[in-house]
Amino acid sequence: MPVITTIQDLKDIYKRRVPKMFYDYCESGSWTEQTFRENVSDFEKIRLRQKVAVDLTNRSTATQMIGQDVSMPVALAPVGLTGMQCPDGEIKAAKAAEKFGVPYTLSTMSICSIEDVAANTTKPFWFQLYVMKDRDYINALIDRAKAANCSALVLTFDLQILGQRHKDIKNGLTAPPKITIPNMIDIAMRQRWAWGMLATKRRGFGNVVGHAQGADNLRSLGEWTASQFDLSLNWDDIQWIKDRWGGKLIIKGILDKEDARRAADSGADALIVSNHGGRQLDGALSSIRMLPDIVDAVGKDIEVHVDGGIRSGQDVLKAVALGAKGVMIGRSYIYGLGAMGEAGVTAALEVIHKELDTTMALCGERLLSDLGRDNLLLPPDFDAGYYS
Q: What structural domains and CATH numbers belong to the chain?
């Protein structure tokens, strides 16, 4: 087994082992990919204050996210097509998260179904919901998540219409891949992935096919999005979703102070500062750059999480110091999953946890609750430079 010390180590292996169309699906953004890149690069602009001669015994990264005990303030984000990155990928990622003591979030557009993941785990996981025109299907989907004992519903609010992702279009992204000469050559070079996919029965959209009307032969994420995602989705819809769900609700896709206030007023338990990994509105600010303003706007009225660009435990610390109660990682764990399956997800979590613990100590803190903006050195215009 290779020695893994960084998320980049996992990414290097992942690129070799996963077919190009699924690597590109993960490792790309919309249009020029400016926002996708800045999600990562803006973390690099934040520097850390080193503190010395501090008692560093009895350190802990444990905390809570929406009242749930977690070993560190990290949840695995919902990622569509995860089961195409690795056979039975959602199940493997959920099992790794459960063992590590962090939440796993299953995407509506997963390959393994809600029932698949529930049957292979022992603790509740979170479920991410896209709202579609077929409300009977959405009501049934919420009911399925309740029956599976999911502990939170993550309502994605920033994907009523699909941002153009050039690589997905050019690759003809489908699940399973279309049989074309370029695809077959690519897959033939990745035999470990190919044999694993042949051995599993899970190769379609498990939460959709056989459950939604007219989706018996669904192959393309873009096809489904174009035809079914609800363009009329608005803030008033939160109430019927809350009533149907009846449990913890998290609103994902907030990147504006006014929207953050509306999310807080909606009665949701948490919001996620997110630009969908740079895959929606290209040219939007990075999530970490928007985080301080949104935290200031909502105060203690709602728990604030953040996703986008997190590739290390230092990134987690920076987000927590800026006011986030937790972060979500997507690509970081997908790299591990595609590289080494469940063991790779565990490796990604171990890397992030070690970096978080060590960095917290070198910043002179023993508890996450002691972190604040005074642990950071920010550029003068970092959190408000784009606002009048």
A: 7-364 (3.20.20.70)
